[in-house]
Automatic annotation (TrEMBL):
It comes from the Bacteria. One of its GO terms (molecular function) is L-methionine-(R)-S-oxide reductase activity. Residues 33-165 form the GAF domain. It comes from Pseudidiomarina aestuarii. Gene3D superfamilies: 3.30.450.40. This is GAF domain-containing protein. Belongs to the free Met sulfoxide reductase family. PROSITE patterns: UPF0067. GO terms for cellular component: cytosol.
Length: 166
């Protein structure tokens, strides 16, 4: 199967999350290593979405604690407790967090002062949170409900990868 990638990212309203999911399936097919797959997925999403400055994963490595995983973007916070920030809220509630303006989010952690909006998808395997899929943008209101739904769908696919290899 040949995979084609858009040469130019498209606007949010036009973005094809079905194609992104197909691309994600294609680049992970047959690869059992979770970290390799998460690395390529963060690169794929960072490349395809416009107006994002950070795309990556935080993984549960200790109880109630997220630890930085594969990502694209500037240097990031390394450890985030479930009790702090947008990532912590997604891990704690098991619900996708769509934040129009992170500066209005109680307990927001400013890993990059240039980030102004965020969407975080919790990743669940066998009923427990194993990590979060995190995207930041320098623009307030960058992410829509449509983006959150498309990224949540991608998150459901990510949950099917080989988490036993972690």
């Amino acid at each position: 199967m040949q995979t084609t990638f858009a040469s130019e990212p498209t606007s949010t309203d036009e973005f094809d999350y079905t194609m992104l999911l197909e691309q994600a399936r294609a680049i992970t097919a047959g690869e059992p290593d979770l970290i390799a797959n998460l690395s390529n997925l963060s690169a794929l999403v960072y490349d395809q979405l416009t107006d994002v400055n950070w795309v990556g994963f935080y993984l549960v490595r200790e109880p109630e604690l997220l630890v930085l995983g594969p990502f694209q973007g500037k240097v990031a916070c390394i450890r985030i407790p479930f009790t702090q920030g947008v990532c912590g809220a997604a891990a704690r509630t098991h619900e996708t967090q769509l934040v129009r303006d992170v500066h209005e989010f109680p307990g927001h952690i400013a890993c990059d002062a240039a980030s102004n909006s965020e969407v975080v998808v919790p990743l669940m395997v066998k009923g427990r949170v194993v990590g979060v899929f995190d995207l930041d943008s320098p623009s307030v209101g960058r992410f829509s409900e449509r983006d959150a739904a498309g990224l949540t769908q991608l998150g459901r696919f990510i949950e099917t990868l080989n988490w036993a290899s972690l």
